[in-house]
Structure formats: structure tokens, C-alpha cells
Amino acid sequence: MGWWFQERIVDTGRLPLFCFFTAMVCGFGFIRLSVRLIRAQVRWWPGNITPGGLHIHHVVFGVVFLLVGGVAQMVVPDELTAGRAAAAAVFGVGAALVLDEFALILHLRDVYWTETGRTSIDAVFVAVAVTGLLLLGLRPIGIEDFDLAESAYAPSHPILWGLAFTVLNLALAVVTLLKGKIWTGLLGLFLWPLIYIGAIRLARPGSPWARWRYRRGRRGQRKLARAVWREVRIRRPLIKAKIRLQELIAGRHNQRTGLPD
After folding, report:
1. Domain check: are 99 and 196 in the same one?
2. Are 49 and 59 in contact (CB under 8 A)?
3. Which domain holds residue 27?
4. Are residues 35 and 128 in the same domain?
5. Is there a single domain that holds both residue 107 and residue 217?
6. How far apart are CA 89 and CA 87, in angstroms?
7. Angle, helices 193-200/158-178, rounded to nearest 10 degrees
8. CA-CA distance, 169 to 142, in Å (whole number)?
9. Interatomic CA distance for residues 87 and 94, integer angstroms
10. Most CB contacts within 10 A, which of 41, 47, 172, 241?
11. In this structure, are residues 198 and 186 in contact, taking their beta carbons and an 8 Å threshold?
């Protein structure tokens, strides 16, 4: 295990990213444990921070951690790997605290334990997934110095070929996102075959693409009917499974108004 960590993480310069990823996951786990204990009114847990009756949400502390970690990253010299890793860890904790209340920031009201509050969990899952892919060494489309341009298909115009390939993939990623396939579009930025599949397949019924393209004509109506059928028969069971996983990790979001956290 030690040699793997040294070879894959330290020697490749990914130690700060590893510390950020680990701190973000641990920070999210800790704050979710904390809010669940507070919600259960466990007596031995400290509880909310309410100086003078003002409830201070943990997103405030997250912003402070983000500022400290971000500034430290710019101040610490590049050769001090341990210092940069520590700063990345602080930044990761801040990111976890902020993303855990992403829904609150988005709606500008306390929706923490409501159905809408699940947006925060989705945001954390996306951040963890993207950071994990980066940690594994995968790079987003367009950040590969046009490696594909060196192929035999365009030996005389490598830069133009690489640029065209990147623009095409980014355009397909946008189409996939407009079709309501968020995970496919985001992961497709790293695993580009996914965005080809997402761009070709039917859009989700409530997506912008469906509203623009499936409302007119018989062909559009047939596509909309098929999209609705897939949503009901295939996607809804998957969404229910995802919600069960979210509730297992983060607690049940079943209240009309958010509670103090």
C-alpha cells in the first residue's frame, strides 16, 4: 500500500489533491453526523452555535476555511509539499461545509431538511465524483494537450485536429446536460464515450431539450411518450435507490421547513 501511495499519489504531484479529497469526504461525514445528532436532540452533543440567539450555519465556517485554505495555497511555496497538502486539506473541509448547505445558498432560505435540501447532497456527490476522477489521473476534455492530435488521422494539422475534437466533445456534453442527464454529462467530460451515448439517447421529459424538441409534430410526441415511459419504468426506480442511499448517509429530508442544524 505504501509503495502504491508513493508512486501514484506523491510522485505524481497529487498529494494536495488527495488531501483535499480526503478532507472533503471526512468533513462531510462529520458535519452530517453532527446535524443528525442535533436533530435527534442527543444531550451530550454540543448542538447549534447560537450566540445571542443568532443561529450561525456551518456554511459560514466553511467560507472561512475556504478563504484560509485558498490563500494558504497561494502563499506556500511550491516546493513545500506538506504545507500545500495541509492547505488543500483545510480547503477540502471548507468545501464540504459549504456544499452541505448548497441548497440553502441556492434558495436563500433554510431548506436543509426539506425535499429541496437534497440538492446539497447531489452537489457533494458531484464534487466527490469529479475529484475522485481527477485523483485517479483522468483529465477533463481539452486538458490533454491535444494528445489525440498526434494520431495518424491528422498528422499535418495536429493542433487543429485536437481543437476540433475538444469543441465537438464539449458541444455534445452541453447537449447531454440540456437533455437532463447531469451525471452523464459531467462524467462524460472525463470519459468522453459517455457524452456520445447521452447526446444520442432520448432526453428526460422535463428537460430543456424535451421542451424545445418534443412538443411539436407526431415524431416529437412519440419521442416524448417514449421518454415518459423510460422515466417511469427505468429512471424512477433508480432515483428511489439514490434517495435511499442519500438518506442512509445524510438523514431523511421530509420536513416542510428546515430545522436548525
Report:
1. no
2. no
3. 2-138+206-250
4. yes
5. yes
6. 5
7. 50
8. 9
9. 11
10. 172
11. no
Cell digits for 43?
A: 444531550
User: 258 in a domain, yes or no?
Assistant: no
Same domain for 195 and 211, yes or no, is no
pLDDT tens by residue, the chain, 261 residues: 677 788 888 888 899 999 999 999 999 999 999 999 998 888 898 888 888 888 889 999 999 999 999 999 999 998 898 999 999 999 999 999 999 999 999 888 888 888 888 889 989 999 999 999 889 888 777 655 445 444 444 445 556 666 777 788 888 889 998 998 888 888 888 888 888 999 999 998 888 888 888 877 788 888 888 888 988 888 888 888 888 888 888 888 876 544 444
Same domain flag for 134 and 154:
no
C-alpha cell at 9: 499519489
How does DSSP classify residue 48? -
> Do residues 175 and 243 share a domain?
no
Cell matching residue 196: 456520445
Residue 148 inside a domain? The answer is yes
Round to whole Å and give the CA distance between 148 and 22: 32
Residue 260 lies in a domain: no
Q: What string of DSSP letters covers 202-214?
A: PPPTTSHHHHHHS
Please indicate, yes or no, whether residues 119 and 9 belong to a single structural domain of this protein: yes
Query: For the chain, what is the domain count?
Result: 2
Kindly state whether residues 127 and 149 are assigned to the same domain.
no
Annotate 106-151 with DSSP letters as a single string: HHTS--TTSGGGHHHHHHHHHHHHHHHHHHTT---TT-STTGGGGS
Q: Look up residue 57 and give its DSSP letter.
A: -
